[in-house]
TrEMBL record:
InterPro entries: Ccp1-like, Haem_peroxidase, Haem_peroxidase_sf, Peroxidase_I. Pfam families: peroxidase (PF00141). Its EC number is 1.11.1.-. Residues 119-312 form the Plant heme peroxidase family profile domain. Belongs to the peroxidase family. Cytochrome c peroxidase subfamily. GO terms for molecular function: heme binding; metal ion binding; peroxidase activity. GO terms for biological process: cellular response to oxidative stress; hydrogen peroxide catabolic process; response to reactive oxygen species. It is an enzyme of class 1 (oxidoreductase). Keywords: Heme, Iron, Metal-binding, Oxidoreductase, Peroxidase, Signal. Residues 1-18 form the signal peptide. This is Peroxidase. It comes from Chytriomyces confervae.
Length: 349
């Protein structure tokens, strides 16, 4: 079935429920998740998605950007104010250095928000969770009904509320992660574990690499435990990851997850749900199973060599024949403009 037809049927058949200040249509969550998956699949799956990204964007990897957005959306949370909702406010802080590079991914993610009227917090969380599942990670139920933070919420410190490799020492970054009420297991799973996807870009993080793109691990297009195995071999890109592997409190967890992917996946599910629900009243959330398949060419497209080749191909304007034909029929470049127009409208609401 054509994706547009599927989404239309989902909306028409969905049962609308009032939940807080958000109208939820549970049966469209699956359709919304598949919208995200559809973007992740062109043209190189979980590695490079140049069909949806402007050529000048330093990062062409929606998977890594969406996962990063899910983390950064709760960056203003303070464990000393556990009931203060901060989720859904990320679009207000895209100009902060810690959020560098996320902007274009937010444009793509939030386009459907205008159409489906979910909370921004649910939107960001769903995009991140769809990435984890589709790119080879654990499959788990999606909780929905999150409230968005009030846009005028005063924060004690707006800037540098999350760890920033460019200006913070490892100890400073660890302190900031503790402010989010993260345990050691949460930190290792969510920080190093999320770096299973993507890499560093010279245009965004010149303090980390002088390469156009440097993968975080040897399988940057696959959500797996290889990032921990590489860390034990002394391979780390970010200051926080290099600090974690040397931290005697954290290293045993690195060793555990490197040898046991199931243990990593189990902890990641627990930590991810904790992260995206910070400040939320979890007793008021509902849950729905997601039917998301793993990307069919994950192994073929997910290695560092394949990702680097895909990035070079995208930079040169080449793409698979099937993708090129589809793009010429659907006007992929025009879609990017539509995404941007929609998100600008969204941010001005």
């Amino acid at each position: 079935m054509h994706l547009a037809s599927f989404l239309t049927l989902s909306v028409l058949s969905g049962l609308a429920l009032s939940h807080g200040n958000v109208t939820i249509i549970p049966r469209t969550i699956q359709g919304l998740a598949m919208t995200f998956v559809g973007h992740l699949d062109v043209p190189y799956g979980c590695s490079v998605n140049s069909d949806d990204m402007p050529p000048e964007s330093p990062s062409q990897n929606l998977a890594a950007l969406w996962l990063r957005a899910a983390f950064h959306d709760v960056g203003k949370f303070d464990a000393e104010k556990p009931e203060q909702v901060v989720s859904g406010l990320l679009p207000n802080y895209l100009n902060e250095t810690e959020n560098a590079g996320i902007g274009i991914s937010v444009a793509t993610s939030f386009a459907s928000y205008v159409k489906f009227n979910y909370s921004r917090a649910d939107f960001i969380a769903l995009a991140g969770q769809a990435v984890v599942i589709h790119c080879g990670g654990p499959n788990f139920n999606f909780s929905y009904g999150r409230q968005d933070g009030i846009r005028t919420t005063p924060f004690t410190s707006l800037a540098q509320s999350l760890p920033d490799d460019a200006i913070h020492t490892y100890d400073m970054m660890k302190t900031k992660l503790r402010r989010l009420n993260f345990t050691n297991a949460d930190i290792v799973a969510l920080v190093t574990g999320s770096h299973s996807l993507g890499g560093a870009h010279k245009a965004i993080s010149p303090h980390l690499t002088d390469q156009k793109f440097q993968p975080f691990d040897s399988t940057p297009g696959i959500f797996d435990n290889v990032v921990f195995q590489d860390a034990l071999k002394g391979k780390c890109v970010t200051r926080v990851d290099c600090g974690i592997i040397k931290d005697p409190e954290m290293k045993p967890l690195i060793e555990l997850y490197a040898s046991n992917q199931d243990a990593f996946f189990k902890q990641y599910v627990e930590s991810f749900e904790k992260m995206v629900n910070l400040g939320q009243k979890t007793s008021e959330l509902s849950s729905v199973a997601l039917d998301i398949e793993v990307h069919e060419k994950l192994a073929e497209e997910g290695s560092a060599q394949a990702v680097l080749a895909a990035a070079d191909a995208a930079a040169g304007g080449s793409k698979p024949v099937a993708t090129a034909v589809a793009s010429s029929k659907s006007g992929a470049s025009g879609n990017v403009v539509c995404w941007m127009v929609l998100v600008i409208s969204f941010l001005l609401l």
